[in-house]
């Protein structure tokens, strides 16, 4: 009898362990209901999303993105810790959700009849559509009607943008000069940049991506839609009605909240470009009011003080009160987490000496992390790139360079090429990349701008 009791107890405990394992690893399986109460028991909300400039990315070592911030706000309202899991594409998002690899999709998931059978849509319902991206105030008049596309060259990537433009061309009876851009090295955002630069006149993208890019390039006009409206929202499994109800309630109550509005402005309204001013005084040999501090602290990292000044100029235009769209502060534009880690006291972000001191400490740490690059002058380019992008993305670009036969220890025409390609899905989903999507054009220009300005400083300002 005793043996039977022990055996029963063992089997019972084993069953509990298996059940607990199912609950932890297989959210929403047939064996276990895994809805909001179970998530609160676990203390964690697992959100599925995609890498992109409008949903989720890592910037200077910090998680960012509009969908990420909304997910974080929602999880906080539930008293849960947020964990992000990134899928490869929309079908993979749905597959991961149905397989229990996450609790919720936080992404503008298209609302379709087919998907309604697989998921429950919830949260804010947004309307997306495709638009023509063109320059405002260019040589020609801004197009205001799709019929005006006849005779025009429009550059598009293969896929939904090309398909929509092809269908529109048929509807108009032909005449649109569609230029399909199939090069893997060119992304949709690259085409938008080319419109801004005047290299091409027109391209096509979704309206949310277009809105975000107007914060970088204010001369863009994105008002001409070329597709029907597509509804989209977040989604959960069919077996999670309580989570769906909570998401609906939260979105309804928070559409006008300060946190929601701050996120909306950060990604879709606040300008991400800095207007720069000239050298303070050529006659007196001054670059800025902070030259003495640059000279003092540049010695600690064995830099020319004019290079440090060029970095500060690019970051903040020598404005000690500057706050970037991403939350970087002060003269040297350090992110809050980095500032704390480098010993910058809370409340002292606008103090120029404290900002420079912390930035130099960060540069020194980055220099040590990049000792694998033997040439000091070459290493400086990598340090500047890391200052802008975060060391993780630079490590990814170096790994890609190595994989594709380029020199991972040389920046120009080698690693810089792959920081640009990190906005391309084929590259940021490569197994050698650990940090996902990144808008590399900013870092590419950042390094070149600082070094070219440094050369000007050397010519005009005595050491």
Automatic annotation (TrEMBL):
Keyword Membrane listed: yes
CDD domains on file: MLTF-like (cd13403), PBP2_YfhD_N (cd01009)
Main location class: membrane
Domain of life of the organism encoding this protein: Bacteria
Domain called Solute-binding protein family 3/N-terminal: residue spans: 47-271
Gene Ontology cellular-component annotations: cell outer membrane
Record's subcellular location: Cell outer membrane
Name the record gives this protein: Transglycosylase
Organism whose genome encodes this protein: Bacteroides graminisolvens DSM 19988 = JCM 15093
